Amino acid sequence: MAEREIEVVIHLWCTRRSASTSLMYSFAQRDDTEVLDEPLYANYLRVTGAQRPYREELLSKMESDGDKVVKDIIFGPGQKKYRFCKHMATQRLHGLPDNLMESGNHCILIRNPLDVLTSYDKETRPSISDLGYDSLVSIFSDLHSRGNTPYVIDSDLLREDPKATLRGLCDDLGIPFQDEMVKWESGAKPFEGMWAPYWYKNAHESTGFEPPRKYTSAFPSSLYELLEQSMPFYDFLKRYVRMNTTKALNPKLPVFANAKLLAWVGDEIVPRESAKVSVFDSIVQGGDAVWEGLRIYNGKVFKLEEHLDRLFDSAKALAFNNLPTREYVKEAIFKTLIRNGMFHNAHIRLTLTRGKKVTSGMSPAFNLYGCTLIVLAEWKPPVYDNESGITLVTATTRRNSPNNLDSKIHHNNLLNNILAKIEGNNSYADDAIMLDKDGYVSETNATNIFLVKKGCVATPHADYCLPGITRATVMELVVKQNLVLRERRISLSEFHTADEVFTTGSMGELSPVIKIDGRTVGDGRVGPITKRLQNAYKKLTEELGVHIPTYQQ
């Protein structure tokens, strides 16, 4: 067959024991593709001096000049339309021609190091460089910086559903999928490297992609440090894996800019996808934490001191030990905001957990590491429609009684509120009103609530509800506006028949309510007193707050 120019060169970058040979077999089944098995191997052995049982024979039979390999073999003429090149990531050495990375379509095959390391026998101990995960990340970063971002495939997904994964890969590569790619004949293949008898025994016995084992052997503890070193590289690449449709969960973020936020966790600032706590942390074990929501306006943190007062009061009420200092928490907040460049229209979810435990269990006696601080800053405008208003329904879920759990402790165990929120969602309402044990209105699942009747502003006692900081601020504004304020028990029917209703909270500020349980509030529009208080609150946020260091308007 006459040689022709190859239209597309497909580069597969991989590590050992990752099903790369099976993927090479798969592409070899295509009638329009020829394959090359590790064409850079001889160059790698020559440059590094690495020892292999077949080293001398390989160097005598394969081209070992990297420049010639890239120019004449990888990108040289061939007999088919496409060329598939399987490359070990460690074989991509400094000094190879730039067009190796600039030309062709690149993909990366990854496998969980937990499974890779388990496959090594007790006598064999690889190094971190042998595993090649760092080389894969380097390749990904290099390609990404060149505008040639590679497609990432997870070997487990490939083996679980070969047809769907291969079809998706072919779509990404811009070539048609062929059904023949999922099966092949057992035995040695003519296109394999001369090292095949040493490494391809299992591959030679296969006739298709072997599904992952449901249960594997115990992980060798002697390789635990290697696992810890490898996982960050694998986790980074896994974020870019092309998921099969049935497994894909890639929701759109409400604010796209938050995809690249930085969060404070423990004692450091980390990227969004690295912002995690230990499975031994009390917040995971029992929702054992306290939190605050803070808003950022014009380079200032609004009501910061009041929020910190409540945070530390809640932590004291729950008998937390080894707390960070108030100044430390402030500095963590400021540093997180500065790193993100967030000085306006941002919101912070500030969380302090009881900390990590030495072993799982309920007892705080197991918390010997100190508290865990989390500062999650996001670009987040008010979460409710404060111009047109929101709708509420009344939940059957009652607000916690102080007999059981005091709502004045601003804790993270929010199941009571979440159950009410589910009822609101099911009714297509913005939120749900929660009643106390006697049937009086307490608050909503997320906010405090006020009504206006004949010019008088009223809000429920803070017996069952959280005495919110925004609530207290608005109560002060009501008095400053020379309006009558009442704090008392309020029945649900009073809210149904009120002239105006609004909710308050750091997340949403002052939100007018236009409908409750299908009943229109007032004339169904934002009322005059609500507007007046909204304006007063807005003015207050412009004037007050703790200045963020380095901010210049």
Percent in helix = 25-40%
Largest sheet: 9 strands, mixed
- Helix/strand-derived category reads alpha/beta
Shape from CA axes? elongated
What's the total count of β strands? 21
Percent of residues in beta strands? 15-25%
**Helical stretch count?**
20
Q: What's the overall average pLDDT, rounded?
A: 95
Distance between the termini: 71 Å
Low-confidence stretches: none
Report the radius of gyration as a whole number of Å. 31 Å
Walk me through the structure.
There is one protein chain. The longest helix is centred in the last third of the chain and has 16 residues. The radius of gyration is 31 Å and the shape is elongated. The model has no long low-confidence stretch (mean pLDDT 95). Helix 8 packs parallel to helix 13. With 553 residues, the protein is an alpha/beta fold. It is built from 20 helices and 21 strands. The strands form 3 sheets. Strands 12, 13, 14, 15, 16, 17, 18, 19 and 20 form a 9-stranded mixed beta sheet that branches.
